[in-house]
């Protein structure tokens, strides 16, 4: 298998005729072979037509087949071997070890969703049996199951070229739910996208699924991405990217004749609260962990710690000193794209020039597209007054907010926008203060974590990678972990359907052995 | 307890100074005592302030107390006795038996949600225990629970003055989820609203809850309703009403700085498919049930059968004849408001005047505000061409679409917008045809039912009262039944939180005995 620069529309591979784009070597900015042809609106229309045609067939395939299909995608990705790893390293500038780890995570996600599909509790089967003798009115037979919502548009993210891109969490959870997927490839890693796209295309073929289950489109402008969200056949959207991009898609979706859900994971500064006793007892140790988390992957994680909140004093000064010492030794790392690098530099310039912001230190300088880490400090007063200080600077930059006292710390916490994560560094003596803060923190973030940093997102059943706006567009869900499947489901209730017509999940005797609730309680059938 | 015309803002009752409105005797149009003062924006602000202040306290009250609070609301409503029933009959024109039945349903809903709260599976507790020995990286401890989303705005509906109004399904499910509620009373039954509002206010007091858990506002224009949806402290909206009204609220919510979910149940014509063998075998019998369902409650049900789809021929003619015979004897019934009556008359006029529509028959004429039932027929060709024929006429009017053949029937089904219900009348010989139609029908409606009509919505665990747009604004949920609680929840994940700080639901040893999943499977702790 190798790259051709073609669009994947169902089982076809065809040359896009709407301009072209190329992958760039992230380290040098040099254009790579081959050129990728951009999709036209006709290509988009064809992909949507196939997805719509595939939908009813795909969503009713046996759960075991759907699970095996997901596992087959995972195997096909592994079978790409070094070609995938090398291309991905080249396009993203991320180190080989990181990309190999991310491939493991991507494959792990697909396999996790295969298990979720087999286990069947995502169907939320509920049976309220008929009571023909009930007075004054007999009770009908009602059976409920979740079904797939419809074809889903997925936008590949730049910062996780495997785990949040073509076969990433959004695609895996949508396919697991029974939805066909059309991916708009991220222009930062078109080669990686094509290779992974072909791995999915192949799995569709092996499992004899209708071809519209998967398509991959390259977009040389914005018309394909916007057109996908606007298309009447698309019923939900998964997106990871900037706040501007996410909000634009939300507006398109809300303005449709039939509005649809958009799951956009957008913007988070992931505050870290250093509580007084923890800061006093082990501030310099925390500082080391902080700088490691801040500079990991050139700071290009959604959960990068962009904000530190603490009460000012000698302990905080020691923390700052230790953080600056570590930061000064931090090597600059290549960023994902020249555009991301240039945004990062602008964000750092704004902080360097800000009258209320002190520059504590910077990391080592690097090459042309490498990000130099930076650490700043400001007062809580300035933080509360200046909205710009609450904005994400995507990359290895962080801002320490020095609060005068506990009251100011609380004010700063209350002023936070929605976040993916809030980290707390605490000792036992801090518990009373933390206990009082917890309700506010719960309202601000999808994940609260203690004595750690938000980078490192475990893919499991109890993970929430979500949170109130602007962290995401929909706080009711997560884009990582098994719960993510719920985003692409809707409940349907069947009343008095004859046994011969009932879907298998709802049939008497539970032939599929899926978890079911009878009259609201656990079933024993 | 009796009516004063006051707003209920937390534990206060105060006179609204922003104009006034009165309940009308539905049968005569005569204004009733007392006058209700309209809320000002300052009243709205105060209610939101109290709701926000109450939120963190209320959502963490023990589940047992929350359940008992819901049951106390139910008892207080019953204790209102005849005063409530009489006022409600007067304001709505609905018969006493219907209102008594609706009270039973309202009380039953509150008690159902009390059980849901006690049972605890709505919390969706998930625990992925730590694996400190895992390589290459140790696994953190992750625990997930659902928490309440925030203060909720509920819009009372005119057509269910008890079950979908002040203490109706939206309020019950939001309170059950742990959300404070601010109700915008429907102007068609202000007296009923105040009485029920006081029953809730009293329960808040009995249970020592923070007063902002509940407020009730009267709106003399649209500023209070719109202002509620726009207010930054409101985090979700429940609405049952017209498509125009629902879409307007959706736009306000989507245009906020922080967009919020709107659960609007809006518009459905609830198609009834008469399959050929059933029509042949028992068409006249079905016709009787159809007319009963059509004229029930003056046709003012969200699930009223506004459309019949069938293949043309002698059997359909017999059905039509029998339906017209029954309809001619159907008494006219008082509608909820003069406005609804006038909209109904206009809708019927449009059909009477439509060039492609035949009037099959009308019911008995009635008094000034009574709705005369009406039955029309058209061709599938006209139905497919004219969008206006797919619009809801709220009241006892229905349209039969005569399809030339099975292909045209399929086309008509495919052209349907989203629906709350689709009913199928079938015999065993129809199964193959029905089986082929089912996937399309599932994509169109929240509930599919066989050999019955959508009116009569069972409140249980397996009910879906929802469906694709425009039936509702959010197809992922239901506004009736225990699943409705999910609308007002969001997941939060806790990573490595010390035992002393964990919420009880997540604590080791499961002290609350709530259902939990450990590593994705059922727990045995």
Automatic annotation (TrEMBL), chains A, B:
One of its GO terms (molecular function) is 2,5-dioxovalerate dehydrogenase (NADP+) activity. Keywords: Oxidoreductase. InterPro entries: Ald_DH/histidinol_DH, Ald_DH_C, Ald_DH_N, Aldehyde_DH_dom, Aldehyde_DH_Superfamily, ALDH_KGSADH. Residues 39-418 form the Aldehyde dehydrogenase domain. Its EC number is 1.2.1.26. It comes from the Bacteria. CDD domains: ALDH_KGSADH. It catalyses: 2,5-dioxopentanoate + NADP(+) + H2O = 2-oxoglutarate + NADPH + 2 H(+); 2,5-dioxopentanoate + NAD(+) + H2O = 2-oxoglutarate + NADH + 2 H(+). It is an enzyme of class 1 (oxidoreductase). Belongs to the aldehyde dehydrogenase family. This is 2,5-dioxovalerate dehydrogenase. It comes from Pseudomonas spelaei.
